[in-house]
Amino acid sequence: MYFDEELPAADQILAGKDIQIRSDFSTPVTDTTTGVIYETTDWKGTSYYFAGAPTDNWLYFGGFYWRIVRINGDGSIRLIYNGSSTTATGTGTLIDTSEQFNSSYNQSEYVGLKYTIGQQHGQTTDSPILNTLQSWYTSSNLDDYADYIDTIVGFCSDRNMAGGSSWSSTGSYHEYAAYGRLITNKNPSLSCTTSDIIAEPVGLITADEVAFAGGVYNTSNNTSYYLYNGQYY
Question: N or C, which end of the chain is more exposed by having fewer CB within 10 Å?
Fold first, then answer.
């Protein structure tokens, strides 16, 4: 299914879908899941997400092709860029092929999409990758579609720590909550601490969203779900 230009309402996406709940995130989802959408919760309420290899989560919007990742708990739609066509692969699906998340790496703060030196959950400085995304957003004239783009629900930049670990600005090893959720427990979550929600129109997919979409860390059979593009991330 393709939605052209105007963003579809959540009820249009849900219409006729088989709504399911997943409990096992230890193996990749590689099935063709057209007609199926999955239910969970995020920091806004009930969220519905696509997983596996659906053919009904395409969207053409603002001159680009996107995949619908999920319906947020407030009813807005979360998208991931797919380039200039539905057949784009590899670097053709990337907004930038060389930008580092942050070229600085000797302090814990630099894991934030936004960060403040000396704070675990600060948001005073934009990361290099966020600057790149913002520049692309502006140069692509997506502001012309501002009436359709949500800037309130935001993107999660989780800086919480795994159980048994404590945050510090420096140190040789830190175990973040996502490590515990995705590698140790195989139990992804779309919850987000209020201070980690980045209110921007453009951001990054989270590792938890990748897991909900069907990916599993350090598993070779991750090449048949809709996020796979032949690139590392």
Answer: C
CA 196 vs CA 118, 157, 178, 218: distances in Å: 15, 5, 13, 26
Residue with tokens 């998208």: 79
Q: Is residue 15 part of a domain?
A: yes
Q: Is 155 exposed, middle or buried (0-12, 13-18, 19+ CB in 10 A)?
A: buried
Rounded to two decimals, what is the model's pTM?
0.94
Q: Is residue 107 part of a domain?
A: yes
Q: How far is CA 190 from the centre of its chain?
A: 10
Are 114 and 121 spatial neighbours (Cβ–Cβ below 8 Å)?
Answer: no
Please report where in the chains the tokens 């995705």 appear, as a residue: 182
Distance between CA atoms of residues 132 and 19, nearest Å: 36
Q: How far is C-alpha 41 from the chain's CA centre?
A: 15
What is the pLDDT tens value at each position of the chain, 233 positions in all?
A: 344 445 678 999 999 999 999 999 999 999 999 999 999 999 999 999 999 999 999 999 999 999 999 999 999 999 999 999 999 999 999 998 888 999 998 999 999 999 999 999 999 999 999 999 999 999 999 989 999 999 889 999 999 999 888 999 998 788 999 999 999 999 999 999 999 999 999 999 999 999 999 999 988 888 899 999 988 76
Using CA atoms in the order 142, 144, 148, 152, what is the torsion angle rounded to 10 degrees? 70
Any domain includes 90: yes
